[in-house]
Design a protein that fits this description.
Elements: H1 7-25, E1 33-41, H2 47-67, E2 73-78, E3 87-93, H3 96-113, H4 119-123, E4 126-134
Antiparallel strand pairs: 1-3, 1-4, 2-3
Length: 137
């Protein structure tokens, strides 16, 4: 006589599939992170040079650090409306110590790829840095 699965085994299988699908559907939990923001006031005539430099030199080095897990993410923001600080860099790390390590490595990699004065230094005469701890999503 062929055996049929019991009702209990069937319920267990359904619950397992449901639990697995819920686990897959949940977004990853966000961890507390340190976010470093660099605000730059860049002069209009050099904005294209700054943006090109970020695209070709700065960005690829930052992308590598994200891929290697040294930074969680990074962004480059261009001005739309507001005060005179028209370029912003954002770097997120899991903690301040990780950010310091990543920042030092980033500086080393950029120096290997670009000789001389960067367009950021040449065209952005003023900047300010802030480091925040993300406390809510």
């Amino acid at each position: 006589m062929p055996r049929t699965p019991s009702l209990m085994a069937l319920a267990l299988a359904v619950c397992t599939v449901a639990w697995a699908s819920l686990a897959i559907a949940q977004p990853p939990a966000r961890v507390t992170a340190n976010v470093a923001l660099g605000f730059y006031r860049c002069v209009g005539s050099g904005l294209a040079d700054v943006d090109t430099y970020v695209r070709d030199v700065h960005g690829p080095a930052a992308d590598e650090l994200v891929a290697e897990g040294l930074w969680v993410e990074w962004s480059y923001l261009t001005h739309r409306y507001g005060d005179e600080f028209n370029r912003v860099f954002m770097y997120e790390a899991v903690d301040l110590e990780s950010h310091i390590v990543a920042s030092a490595e980033f500086t080393r990699r950029v120096a290997e790829r670009f000789e001389g004065t960067s367009p950021i230094t040449a065209h952005c005469p003023e900047h300010r840095d802030n480091i925040y701890t993300r406390t809510l999503p």
